[in-house]
Specification:
With 459 residues, the protein is α/β, with parallel strands linked by helices. The chain has 4 domains: 3-88, DnaA, N-terminal domain (GMP Synthetase, Chain A, domain 3), CATH 3.30.300.180; 127-285, Rossmann fold (3-Layer(aba) Sandwich); 296-358, Helicase, Ruva Protein, domain 3 (Orthogonal Bundle); 364-457, Orthogonal Bundle (Chromosomal Replication Initiator Protein Dnaa, Chain: A), CATH 1.10.1750.10. Helix content is 57%, strand content 9%. It is built from 20 helices and 8 strands. Strands 5-6-7-4-8 form a 5-stranded parallel beta sheet, with helices on both faces. Helix 8 runs parallel beside helix 9 (235-250). Mean pLDDT is 85; it is low at 1-9, 91-103 and 110-118. The chain binds adenosine-5'-diphosphate and magnesium ion. Residues 125, 129-131, 136, 164-170, 296, 324-325, 328 line the site of adenosine-5'-diphosphate (ADP).
């Protein structure tokens, strides 16, 4: 609903134009150009704001990084909205055919290519902007090899797995983008597993025809599907995916997939699909170490034409450790606020602006909260964690919880010990060491702990 002080002929177009002007001022022109230039806006009568963006990427990214800024600006302009949603205008990938008779051969070749690039690949997600470190070296090298010679390496399918915000989508997009622009593959299709599923359902329900869906994929050179964990528990989609997958492999076409966990750990996934995955290369991305995080912050700042003093780089990279998306979000916040206030980014400014992100996270992560999440993950009660028993099914979760408290809170070992049934601090040290040494050998345990850490990140 538009507030009363807006004249009735203040159309949504000019409203959005004004809003965009303010956004640009806030976030700087580089970010504005990348994320907002092609957006559009719609306000329905019930006050729901719909912001149209080119594709799902933009939707996810803008939602994550800029919702607060948009809300703030709409507020400033006295526009009341009940909700804000981001609507990708590009729902289905299509290879748009130009009116061939009217074009020269070069134009003909160029146009569909440009159209595809625009639809599928985000310009920021390229190999050049990907920082390589120990945590992602193998995944990066394999992606590059596949991009250079799709279908010709033994990395087929290539599957990259790893936690959220660690660069899987970035790599997959870079790979597809490279293959397309360098011409190593003619027809490249990138989509998320949800898009694949939706399109499949759409074909079955509306067109009552899954054959044409199958055909749609049968003559492409590279199929990239992001986040295949969402195929879990969808047998119909899996079956169709398997059919397309086999066909492409048989024709020596390249397949690239990503998953948020090891493929054989995806629940309710057909066994023969998993078996076929084993014929290619499955490689992981780990959380980046401090050095890599610093390199990423430097690179992103450079990209935005921003000079960051070394101590600011160290401060951000040192405090935001869980994933790169968060690192980037903090940096955007810093850039936005500093360009708004016109202040140079000194360590004091960085502490002031990012301090709340960093310390509120620290505060939220209390010993109690970690105990709760750990107990949940091991299906025992919080009280049992503190019980004086050496039973393995209690002792292991207790050690894990202590380890997580030491890693994620600022509490002293003494305090942690106290919170676990009044144990001595040396018991805490011993438990943490035990977990640390098991982490490298015991995959199940490591994954379990990563799962808990992910839940902690959501707090
Ligand atoms: P995932 O798909 O694994 O959840 P993304 O690929 O979306 O993660 O990465 C999250 C953000 O972090 C993206 O903006 C991406 O550009 C950035 N990013 C991730 N890894 C790197 C890297 N190694 N170098 C530069 N940027 C990275
Ligand atoms: Mg992703």
């Amino acid at each position: 609903m538009l507030a009363n002080n807006l004249s009735p002929d203040f159309s949504t177009t000019s409203l959005w134009a004004e809003c965009l002007r303010k956004i640009e001022k806030k976030i700087g022109s580089a970010s504005y150009e990348t994320w907002f230039r092609t957006t559009d806006f719609n306000l329905s009568s019930d006050g729901a704001a719909h912001i149209q963006v080119p594709n799902q990427f933009f939707a996810d990214f803008i939602e994550q990084h800029f919702t607060a800024i948009i809300e703030e600006i709409l507020n400033e302009m006295a526009v009341e909205v009940t909700s804000i949603s981001f609507v990708p205008t590009q729902k289905d990938w299509t290879i748009i055919q130009p009116l061939t008779e009217e074009l020269t051969e070069t134009q003909q070749r160029k146009i569909p290519k440009v159209v595809r690039e625009k639809e599928q690949f985000h310009p920021n997600y390229q190999f050049e902007s990907f920082v390589v470190g120990d945590s992602n070296r193998m995944a990066h090298a394999a992606s590059l090899a596949v991009a250079e010679a799709p279908g010709k390496t033994s990395f087929n399918p290539l599957i990259i797995y790893g936690g959220t915000g660690l660069g899987k989508t970035h790599l997959l997009q870079a790979l597809g983008h490279f293959a397309q622009t360098e011409g190593t593959a003619e027809r490249v299709v990138y989509l998320t597993s949800e898009e694949f599923t939706n399109q499949y359902i759409n074909y079955v329900v509306n067109k009552k025809d899954s054959t044409s869906f199958y055909k749609k994929f049968s003559d492409i050179d590279m199929l990239i599907i992001d986040d295949i964990q969402f195929f879990s528990g969808k047998p119909g989609t899996q079956k169709e995916f398997f059919r397309i997958f086999n066909r492409l492999l048989m024709d020596r076409k390249q397949i690239v997939l990503s998953s948020d966990r090891q493929p054989d750990k995806i629940p309710d996934m057909m066994e023969h699909i998993i078996n076929r995955f084993m014929g290619g290369l499955i490689t992981d991305i780990q959380p980046p170490n401090l050095e890599t995080r610093m390199a990423i912050v430097r690179k992103k700042a450079e990209f935005d034409g921003l000079f960051l003093p070394a101590e600011v780089v160290q401060y951000i990279a040192g405090h935001i450790t869980s994933n790169i998306r968060e690192l980037e979000g903090t940096l955007i916040k810093l850039i936005a606020s500093s360009s708004f206030t016109g202040r140079d980014i000194t360590i004091e400014v960085a502490k002031e602006i990012c301090g709340d992100v960093i310390s509120s996270k620290d505060e939220r992560l209390s010993i109690k909260f970690i105990q709760q999440k750990t107990a949940e993950a091991f299906a025992i009660s919080v009280n049992q964690l503190s019980a004086h028993t050496r039973k393995k099914e209690i002792a292991l979760p207790r050690s894990v919880a202590m380890y997580l408290c030491k890693k994620w809170t600022k509490q002293s070992l003494r305090t942690i010990g106290l919170e676990f049934g009044g144990r001595d601090y040396s018991t805490v040290i011993h438990s943490c060491k035990k977990i640390e040494s098991q982490l490298s050998e015991n995959d199940d345990l490591r994954e379990k702990i990563e799962g808990i850490e992910e839940m902690l990140g959501d707090c």
